[in-house]
Task: inverse folding
């Protein structure tokens, strides 16, 4: 038999077992599956579903806000309203300003909140109907380089002063100036006099009621715009 034939035969007889060994070896090696790909798709699908649900809820809130009676309300100022109003859309507060004799009067008005009547009348602390909206005000009266500042809360039927301080406009912020006692600790006649002081300068009950309605209206408009901005962000 030719040598070449013997060599081929020999080679074949030895190569086949080696190939079988290699095949057996590789078949025993675990090949990682592509589960990460399907998991990523599943997560993406879940994320899209969650976003769709969130947008659906936001749309529902927008519709509810648009259907309310006050989302496009307009509140007219009283005839004797003495202040100029600065109202920037997107901000939660407004600024009132006026001049009175040699004084500059500014009133910062924040959005309304509610306060339970038990904080105002301990005798009716079980009457939930006494919950009333109110607005916090910061009233500043400036003249001759000094500023008299009041912390005020306005209710539909009352203007309440809860703090009073006198500051020098050029004083350093590092200085801890004496601010006086708590307003409620002042003599009752002095408290009444300061209420009259603010009334003369334009902060009276009719002004407070107008501001309360104005800020409730602003709150509604700002909330609707906030929802629209929220939807725009989620969609982007």
Result:
């Amino acid at each position: 038999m030719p040598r070449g034939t013997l060599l081929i035969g020999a080679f074949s007889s030895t190569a086949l077992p080696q190939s079988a060994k290699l095949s057996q070896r590789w078949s025993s090696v675990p090949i990682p599956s592509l589960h990460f790909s399907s998991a990523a798709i599943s997560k993406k699908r879940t994320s899209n579903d969650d976003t769709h649900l969130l947008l659906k809820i936001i749309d529902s809130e927008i519709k509810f806000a648009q259907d309310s009676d006050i989302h496009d309300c307009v509140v007219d100022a009283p005839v004797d309203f003495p202040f100029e109003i600065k109202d920037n859309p997107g901000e939660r507060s407004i600024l009132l300003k006026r001049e009175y004799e040699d004084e500059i009067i500014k009133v910062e008005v924040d959005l309304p909140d509610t306060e339970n009547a038990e904080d105002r009348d301990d005798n009716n602390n079980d009457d939930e109907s006494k919950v009333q909206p109110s607005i916090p005000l910061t009233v500043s009266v400036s003249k001759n380089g000094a500023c008299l500042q009041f912390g005020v809360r306005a209710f539909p039927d009352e203007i309440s002063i809860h703090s009073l301080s006198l500051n020098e406009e050029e004083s350093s912020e590092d200085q801890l100036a004496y601010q006086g006692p708590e307003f409620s600790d002042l003599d009752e006649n002095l408290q009444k006099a300061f209420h009259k002081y603010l009334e003369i300068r334009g902060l009276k009950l009719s002004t407070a009621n107008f501001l309360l309605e104005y800020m409730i209206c602003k709150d509604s408009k700002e909330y609707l715009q906030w929802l629209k901005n929220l939807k725009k962000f989620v969609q982007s």
